[in-house]
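dumping the sequnces here before i forget
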Amino acid sequence: MKTKDIVYIALFAALTAALGLFPPITLPVTGVPITAQSLGPMLAGAILGARRGALSIILFLVLVAVGLPLLSGGRGGFGVMIGVTGGFMFGWAISAFIIGLLIEKFWNHLNVFNAALSIVFGGIVVLYAIGNAWVAVVADISYWQATVGSAPFLIGGAIKVVIATAACLAVRRAYPLISKAG
Amino acid sequence: MIAGLYIDGTSAVHRATAGIKILAMVALGTGVFLIPDWPVAAAVLATVIVLYPVSGFGLRVLWAQIKPMIWLLAVFFAVQLWLHDWQAGLLVVTRVAAIVLFAALVTLTTKTSAMLDSLERAMQPLRPIGVNPQKVSLAISMVLRFIPVIATVASEIRDAQRARGLDKSILAMVVPLIIRTLKMADDVADAIDARSFDPD
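..and the predicted 3d for all of it:
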């Protein structure tokens, strides 16, 4: 791994932390908060690719675990990591990896459709599968009930997919970091 | 610089090594899921709560740890009450509260530097599979330096886009932010290489 890769990994870990500084938007009817932070794993995977993207999120999670208040709302420490929403946090790393893998695969003919598809699959389908399973175990409810409970967050997820897709395509044109032959 | 969540103190809990506290946390986190009855889980929770005054923390600190999860716990209790009975509700609530409060206590009583030290030690056996502790340390120190830089660049971009009437657009914010900081990252990497950083 070159020095450049280490710096990129650190940069996207810092970017994910910085996204937590934006105040969350609360949806009018449901009262579900949308934080900008979960955009971090999508961007890391879509811009850095699978390996570097996942490592940057793991680095971010390590810093949260050792007690830095980097999660949105100034939270941090082991409590949130192994608490109810812990599955979503570990899921972020896997989500970044899968998004990166798909974007790398589509790289040479990446367009708005396959980019959005990659981000939806890694950032929504896989992430919620892991997060909901964790909630189901911790709260002792069925997987289906956990899925219903997390459904309101999909509105925020959809907004973030749109932003991450557009950002991924714009950065690919201006400053491509993934080089995939074939 | 970012301040950690550590609160200074001299209690036995503060003095215990980071490694021991983390192992205790893992053991507790696994153990409580094996408890089938709520009175046992409640006793575990009571023990965890007692550790707060033992560590020199008052009610205010304890409440600050409980407050963010109180609604979630209420929802969990309601769901269990609706599906099963109140005993099942109490079991889930006391179990989650015990884990989260103990984990928070570990964070409150352990300096971030001590955590990072034990992390570096824990990484040593991973060397053969390609984990390089020095590279990880370099990455960690860069993250802490980059966060304020990103915040500064973001506020510059916000000003520039406001002049163009684009201050409501998230994309007009995110894309220049990523490209500008990526260029900066390349310069930082060149500067590190120019100083012959070679951990291998």
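The beta strands of chain A are 25-26, 33-34.
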